[in-house]
Design a protein that fits this description.
Shape: globular
Radius of gyration: 25 Å
CATH architecture: Beta Barrel
Largest sheet: 19 strands, antiparallel
Distance between the termini: 21 Å
Structural class: mainly beta
Oligomer: single chain
Order of helices and strands: EEEEEEEEHEEEEEEEEEEEEE
CATH class: Mainly Beta
Number of helices: 1
Strand content: over 45%
Length: 444
């Protein structure tokens, strides 16, 4: 991905003075310390719906008014303009106050698909963060809220002829609200710490819901959990943790379908966090996830056979600074989550390996590879029996023109593939997508 940064700090100084010349007066920077930037990116996407459906595979299907046919190789030039303003209010409270960070930011994206107007949208993002410390207690919280103003109808694929990883691309451009939040409160005591924690992932999809085969009905869903971690410091910068989470996942039930897969869960977690060596930073939590799905009723069906499964939960990252010029980052997440199209839950796995090389003081190189898996085979609905993969490879160059401006060029290849046997017209469950982007970011 192409990006550039410009930083411009203005200072006002008046005067200078000896004899009859006014003495120097320094006007201080505002206590709220604003940070502003402007990013512009131009890209070309050769398969905006990530579809593998060519005309020869099309069954007779209906594209309702307001929707759009999500077919193979629908391409477009895309322009994104992203201003950003962030204010940190902590300095207003004076030296020695509890808060080190108390910030609020607004970071919208204005996105135009020049060759497919239905996909243009605006994302209005509000970002809040706080960090504070008093004695042995420390508090951290962040919230990323976004209202996406886009099309109010989902796209239409021909029946079930699409890969699971095709759906997120157009979904993220539709009318909706998303919110992601996390909060921790930690008490340090000698080599031990006690840390209550809570987290939220929330989707409120505002597109029309239509009972038409192939039309993408997006349901509301959320995941909320809370619990506690107990930690022991093996060294001053590296700790072992044991944790517990109790949570709930909600999936909306469509008016025209009896199926949904809300559940309660409990997780027992073991983790490592910190820096075991100066060159390596680690943050990992893994453990069993105990699920509890509701029994069937006259108005609701849970479309899985095992209502009390035990799943593996794992999430983490490792960052290795190999040399002063080379950094390798590995991230992963595996968990039971909810389909954005309703009905069955699925097991979501992501593995990401990234490499950054500082070629010169001004030029940097990035290489990134991801493997994603969406396994729906725990469901008992034949139409939803699928396991899809996505292979994602990206590379890019970033150039720092000066301390105020930088540029970058990026290319991404997405390959969606089917991973179950006995699929008719298997190529319709696969897609290829190329994305090239160039852009600039200026900070004031």
């Amino acid at each position: 991905m192409l990006f550039a940064s410009l930083t411009l700090v203005s200072r006002m100084v008046m005067g200078a003075a000896t004899n009859n010349i006014p003495s120097p007066i320094k006007i201080p920077k505002p206590a709220w310390r604003p940070e502003a930037s402007l990013a512009v990116k131009e890209s070309y996407d050769d398969n905006i719906f990530a579809s593998g459906v060519a005309g020869k595979f099309l069954p007779a299907y209906t594209v309702p008014p307001g929707s759009v046919a999500a077919l193979e190789n629908r391409s477009s030039w895309v322009t994104m303009v992203s201003p950003k303003l962030t204010l940190n209010f902590a300095p207003w409270l004076g030296d020695g106050n509890f808060f080190q960070i108390l910030s609020l930011g607004y970071a919208p994206d204005f996105v135009t698909y020049h060759d497919q107007d239905s996909e243009s949208y605006q994302a209005h993002r509000v970002i809040a963060a706080l960090k504070g410390k008093a004695g042995s207690w420390s508090l951290g919280a962040d919230n990323n809220f976004v209202f996406i103003h886009g099309a109010k109808f989902g796209p239409t694929y021909p029946g079930p002829l699409f890969n699971a990883y095709a759906s997120p691309f157009p979904r993220e451009r539709r009318e909706q609200i998303q919110d992601r939040a996390a909060v921790t409160l930690q008490d340090d005591w000698r080599n031990f710490f006690f840390r209550p924690a809570a987290a939220l992932i929330y989707y409120d999809l505002m597109t029309a819901q239509l009972n038409i085969p192939g039309y993408q009905n997006y349901e509301d869903r959320y995941d909320v959990n809370g619990g506690v971690d107990l930690g022991y410091e093996l060294t001053p910068s590296f700790a072992l943790t044991l944790g517990y989470r109790y949570g709930h996942q909600y999936q909306q039930q469509f008016a025209f379908s009896p199926y949904s897969s809300s559940s309660d869960y409990q997780r027992m977690l073991a983790g490592l966090e910190g820096k075991p060596w100066r060159w390596l930073e680690v943050e990992i939590q893994v453990g069993p996830d105990f699920r509890n799905y509701p029994e069937n009723s006259a108005t609701h069906l849970t479309p899985i056979n095992d209502l009390h499964p035990v799943k593996f939960y794992g999430e983490g990252s490792l960052t290795a600074t190999i040399t002063t010029k080379d950094t390798v980052t590995f991230k992963f997440k595996e968990w039971q989550w909810l389909s954005s199209l309703g009905k069955v839950p699925y097991y979501d796995s992501t593995v990401d390996l990234a490499y950054h090389r500082r070629l010169t003081e001004k030029l940097g190189f990035d290489l990134d590879g991801k493997l994603l898996s969406a396994d729906y085979t725990s469901g008992n609905l034949a139409a939803c029996h699928r396991k899809d993969l996505d292979y994602n490879i990206g590379t890019g160059l970033g150039y720092i023109l000066n301390p105020h401006v930088s540029f970058s060029l990026a290319y991404t290849l997405d390959l969606g593939r089917n991973n179950v046997d006995s699929v008719v017209n298997e190529s319709t469950r696969a897609f290829s997508r190329n994305l090239i982007a160039i852009g600039a970011l200026m900070s004031f």
